[in-house]
Write a structure and sequence with these properties.
This protein is an alpha/beta fold. It contains twelve helices and ten strands. Strands 1, 2, 3, 4, 5, 6, 7, 8, 9 and 10 form a ten-stranded mixed β-sheet that branches.
């Protein structure tokens, strides 16, 4: 049974999503002192897409989201002290973000990045079919290549930066940094044994394991951009305990050296849940919680970002419920049930209200046009709509 007496087997998807949303809202009001925000905005509140000088946006997604059981619940709150006590009170929290697309990590992240529910094979090395947020941004505002970057968790994401859409595509996308590939290139002449935990490319299936071999010229090029030597990169990797730690380290270097206006970071450690080890899944949640706080701290400490940046934090989707006999609980996201599709989003910083919970449903494809409203570009092929509570 879900809260408020709703039966998972007989309830409609909309009823289940609404019940999850209400539970999250009530929990946040109790635990973090957050109030219910306005759910109806007048036409004038959805601001037109115009050039917003000096505005920046950072997007953080979780590959394979964490369930409420282990996060936004009384039992789970110990795993997210930073999200709950530091970030949520400074944010507008959207308690009902619905993903109606394919629940695979690459295709779902591509859908988040295009604002269209992409339908390609999750394990295919292809570009998204529709223009990405990075192409809208660069083409619409005539921005240079150095102003939009993606830090991706695995080689399977190496084409996330630009689409195959005519009129967009090559030359208009984001630079994609794959820290694992860079590390593999840095270690190409030595043993990888002590880095195996950092180099594993995919937690979901051993059938999809693209090569992790990098190229020396690529490593040197990125090292030059980050003002970081190969030896420094390798030394820092040796002291970091997870791929996500490595990604956030690279993100901080990128922010301090280039200060891009659009930065997208995908965290992936939570997806180790596919291994079936609950303790590793919890570790991934706690690490993601801490790293989100570190990213916000970096935004606040960098003069180019402070007071001009909107930070969005959201899972790509959820995981199976323990109550669904067709699923695998925390381990997988196979059923596509309403609980695995109903996630949340935090928006904080410039343009976002503090201590506010929005209960009304929004869709994951609304992210791209909302980033467009923040930065001032038109995401005209997106299936989503700008979220008026953030602009």
């Amino acid at each position: 049974m879900l809260p408020f007496g709703i039966d998972l087997k007989s309830a409609t998807p909309r009823q289940i999503s609404a019940a999850v949303s209400t539970t999250r809202r009530n929990f946040l009001r109790m635990a973090a002192g957050m109030g219910l925000g306005a759910t109806v905005f007048g036409p004038g509140d959805a601001r037109a897409a115009t050039v917003r000088r000096g505005r920046k946006a950072v997007v953080v997604t979780f590959g394979g989201g964490a369930r409420d059981d282990e996060t936004f619940s009384e039992d789970g709150q110990e795993n997210i002290p930073h999200l709950l006590n530091e970030l949520a009170p400074q944010s507008t929290f959207f308690s009902q973000v619905v993903n109606k697309g394919i629940l695979g990590h690459y295709v779902a992240t591509a859908s988040l990045a295009t604002g269209v529910y992409e339908t390609f094979n999750n394990f295919a090395a292809v570009s998204p079919d529709n223009p990405t947020v990075f192409e809208y941004f660069r083409k619409g505002l005539n921005r240079p290549a150095t102003d939009a970057w993606v830090i991706a968790p695995s080689n399977g994401f190496n084409r996330i930066g630009e689409s195959g859409r005519r009129g967009f595509g090559p030359g208009l996308g984001a630079g994609v940094i794959l820290p694992k590939r860079l590390l593999a290139a840095a270690l190409s002449k030595g043993s990888h044994a002590e880095y195996d935990h950092l180099l594993r490319d995919n937690y979901e299936t051993p059938l999809y394991a693209p090569s992790l071999q990098g190229h020396e010229f690529e490593l040197d090029q990125i090292a030059s951009v980050l003002k970081l030597s190969v030896s420094e990169f390798t030394r820092h990797a040796q002291t970091l305990t997870s791929p996500d730690e490595l990604s956030v380290f690279v993100a901080k270097q990128l922010m301090s050296q280039l200060a891009p206006s659009l930065l997208w970071i995908t965290l992936h450690d939570i997806d180790i849940a596919h291994s079936g080890a609950f303790s590793l899944y919890i570790d991934g949640i706690r690490r993601s919680d801490r790293l989100c706080a570190e990213i916000w701290s970096a935004i606040q400490s960098e003069p180019e970002y402070k007071d001009r940046t909107t930070l969005f934090i959201l899972p790509d989707f959820g995981r199976d419920s323990d109550m669904d006999s067709g699923g695998n609980g925390f381990q997988h996201h196979r059923t596509g049930d309403p609980l695995s599709r109903t996630t949340w989003m935090l928006a904080l910083g410039s343009g976002a209200k503090e201590k506010t919970v929005v209960d009304r449903p929004v869709e994951s494809v609304d992210l791209v046009p909302t980033v467009g409203a923040v930065l001032g570009f038109d995401a005209r092929f997106s299936q989503g709509k700008p979220i008026p509570e953030v602009a």
